[in-house]
Design a protein that fits this description.
six-stranded mixed beta sheet; 352 residues; five-stranded mixed beta sheet
């Protein structure tokens, strides 16, 4: 099968007739992914199971303490308040194909052409190799995997019915209806995240520098409620508009230095990264990308976490090539789910 125009262009841009920055391809569009980084670092594993990750939670207590005297009758009760959560796990795949001709253009020969188990570089390859095609394709695959998983983790579960449901499927702007993990939020008030949003009874925050700043006061009040039941919102991710307003309110109410602008030392106009209760408020570019630049998510990562099937995180595959084409295949699969075992310890803030 002939090369497509894109494949021919890729080879041409990597060959000897175009010389710039030998051996390196400088990406222009890599973004930080703090949600993916934080959740992946604290991910858990589960051994398997037919179709669900199942957890038990409890929010109601039905016993009562009554007074009595002498031979007054007393009552007994049998508690039955455990609720069961079920999260389906999902399988994910990303695959790459590379023609052996492309590798030859890169000065590389495949030793075992059945599955591409090993490759060897030609002698004096560096004389013709200016941008490693194989390295570039593998880097492209790794970054595409990260971008795809990050997008899913910020999603609401509607983009792909066979893929992981993200943080916006667990933490809702209106947490009073529907269900999470199969448990009704409307029937159980304790099974809801905190939400200072327009969708939740118009409780979104109107920015103001007066009285110490509207955002810091709202954050302090909501944080107190998130700690009420033993939670700890420790991952704070915000869009650019939210951070801009927060910086504006802090500048309007803060004290710069003892000398002010007359300091003999340099005058620093920049502001350090903002923290709240020791937790850095991270700018997450993905919130801007999904039109959530006025939002901040404060997530309890002990209560909401990635759960990978044991041995199935970023599992590498080298499929055998078909007998009639000289193409090398590489693939990676991941099986898991995003799981919540407590919701009332996480918060969504929305700036009006």
């Amino acid at each position: 099968m002939p090369f497509s125009a894109q494949e021919l262009s890729n080879i041409a841009n990597s060959a000897l007739d175009y010389y710039f920055d030998r051996g390196r391809v400088k990406s222009q569009s890599l973004q930080n992914k703090p949600l993916l980084k934080a959740l992946d670092e604290k991910a858990k594993t589960f051994p398997g199971g037919k179709e669900f990750i199942s957890l038990a939670v409890k929010g109601e207590y039905s016993g009562s303490l009554d007074g009595y005297s002498h031979d007054d009758e007393v009552s007994y009760y049998n508690p039955a308040n455990i609720k069961r959560l079920n999260y389906p796990w999902y399988e994910h795949h990303i695959g790459l194909e590379i023609t052996l001709t492309e590798l030859k253009n890169d000065g590389i020969s495949v030793v075992d052409s059945m599955n591409g188990a090993s490759v060897s570089e030609h002698s004096e390859r560096e004389m013709t190799m200016l941008a490693g095609i194989l390295d570039d394709k593998l880097e492209d695959m790794a970054e595409s995997y990260d971008r795809g998983l990050n997008s899913l983790l910020w999603g609401d579960g509607t983009s792909d019915a066979q893929a992981i449901a993200g943080i916006r499927a667990l933490l809702l702007e209106d947490p009073t209806s529907g269900s999470t993990g199969g448990l009704s939020r409307s029937a159980h008030s304790w099974w809801r995240n905190l939400a200072l949003t327009n969708s939740n009874n118009n409780t979104d925050i109107t920015g103001s520098t007066s009285d110490g700043g509207a955002l810091p006061r709202a954050m302090q009040s909501a944080y107190r409620q998130a700690r009420r039941y033993g939670g700890n919102p420790n991952l704070w991710l915000a869009g650019s508009d939210f951070i801009d307003q927060l910086e504006k309110e802090l500048r309007a109410n803060g004290t710069y230095t003892q000398d002010g602008f007359n300091s003999r030392a340099k005058t620093e106009v920049g502001m350090a990264d903002i923290t709240f209760k020791g937790n850095r408020i991270n700018y997450d570019p993905t919130l801007d990308d999904i039109s959530k630049s006025k939002y901040c998510y404060a997530i309890d990562t002990d209560a909401i976490f990635l759960d990978y099937m044991e041995g199935e995180k970023m599992k590498r595959h080298s499929p055998a090539r078909p007998h009639d084409v000289y193409v090398m295949f590489r693939a990676m699969t991941t099986t898991g789910a995003l799981v919540a075992r407590q919701l009332n310890s996480s918060i969504i803030f929305e700036l009006d």
